[in-house]
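Re: that chain you flagged

S.,

Sorry for the slow reply, it's been a week of failed gels. I finally had a moment to sit down with the sequence you sent. For the record, here it is as I used it:
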Amino acid sequence: MARSGVQYEDVQRAIDTLLQRQETPSVQKVREVLGTGSFTTISDHLREWRARREANRDLPPTQALPEALQSAMSELWASAQESAHQALSHYREEADRRVAEAQQMAGQARREAEDAAQRESALAEQLHRAQARLEELGALASRVEAERDQAREAEQRLRQERESRQAELAQLRERLEAREAAHQQAQAEQAEAHRQQLAQEEQRHEAAESRLMALLDEARQQRQADDKQHRERQQRLEARLSRLESQLEEQRRLAAEAEKARLEARQQADESERQRQAEAEARRIGEEHLEALLDARGSENAALRGQLEVLQGELAALQARLAERPLPPFVC
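Prediction finished late last night. Pasting the structure tokens below so you have them in one place:
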């Protein structure tokens, strides 16, 4: 059955055009005249045209002409038919040969079309698999992009948390430095007050010694003993202050180690979530250690102030005993 693209009337008009050009109709030439159409459809219409021409070939001419003219026309028609049979026999053989070749080409074209259909089916299957793979890759890309966004958000939160921790540590460091400065200032003030008290005591002793040159040996020995006891207590106090300074230096070293450990833990935060947790744990331990050091330093400062107060009390008691002791009569 002919296809619906090119109609029989189109092929017949193309054949009439070729006959007017005195050209033998063929599938290729008909298609060139039409400019479109498949070879199979044109071949079917061309075969139908030849069948119709063969069926109408022996029909007599119309009877509407005069009898003499009809006789002449009949003779001319018979002669023309004979000439046409002789002339067209060659064309019929050539046409049959070309039809056979066209049919062979059509069969080859059908086989190639079937092969092409099979290849198209295989390509369609490959395309389907490729599209499925592309969809999978798209979904994977979406998941990867979502995970990347989550990672960026987690990194941003971690960066903010790290900046907050750094700010807290900076504040803690400032407070620690302020406490150390205050402690050093207090120690300096206490040492200066102690030196001033010692200087005043020495001045009083010197004045008393200048006034009491004539005192009895017992008062002089007692005063020397008191001076020796006072110097021993002063030496003990200085030794205790030296130990306290050593402990303060050790605490500073521990604080530096804790700061170093915190920095190392912060550098490891970029490697993995597990290392970030380890950093957080180390930072927490460092902060607890710093707080413990600060608490311990505060306790030691309180203990040191208590010891200084005790020493000041003992010094005041010693001064009171010296003041209460009766002086021998001054000899002019």
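What I noticed first: Residues 67-211 form the longest helix (145 residues).

Talk soon,
D.
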